UniProtKB/TrEMBL annotation:
Coiled coil: none annotated. InterPro entries: Endoribo_LPSP/chorism_mut-like, RutC-like_sf. It comes from Roseomonas nitratireducens. CDD domains: YjgF_YER057c_UK114_like_1. Residues 7-143 form the Endoribonuclease L-PSP/chorismate mutase-like domain. The lineage of its organism: Bacteria, Pseudomonadati, Pseudomonadota, Alphaproteobacteria, Acetobacterales. This is RidA family protein. Pfam families: YjgF_endoribonc (PF14588).
Amino acid sequence: MAGRIAARLAELGISLPQPAAPIANYVPFSVTGKLVVVSGQIPLRDGAIAYTGKVGVDLTPEAAKDAAALCFVNLLAQVQAAAGDLDLVKRVLRLGGFIAAPASFTQHAVVMNGASDLAVAVFGDAGRHARTTIGVPSLPGDAAVEVEGMFELA
């Protein structure tokens, strides 16, 4: 029988991918006590980066918002690997977003809402979190967005 979070993901039409392997010298997540800290996840779909380039130049803020949501799905895949069961997530504590964009771009928060909105859609009030969102000149693999996270387990 599926757990409540698995059922909620199914309602949203989301299936978790295999967790992405690190591309450099780091681990995909660290667990200490009841905290899971997940390394930044890019918008991978079927092993390829689904959204590349600079937001506001190569893709719209709305498309980048979808990229941020996909990053959150990839975060959940890592949390599932760390905890074994997403029902153990007590709270999404923090998300950090990195948006590849030119210096003139100012809608970073709108883009990051893709991840934040999905966190609340999946976990309800437990998905409300602290957040940092910054613009950067580039990301690994020319990804448009990267999202990292911290989760509290029960």
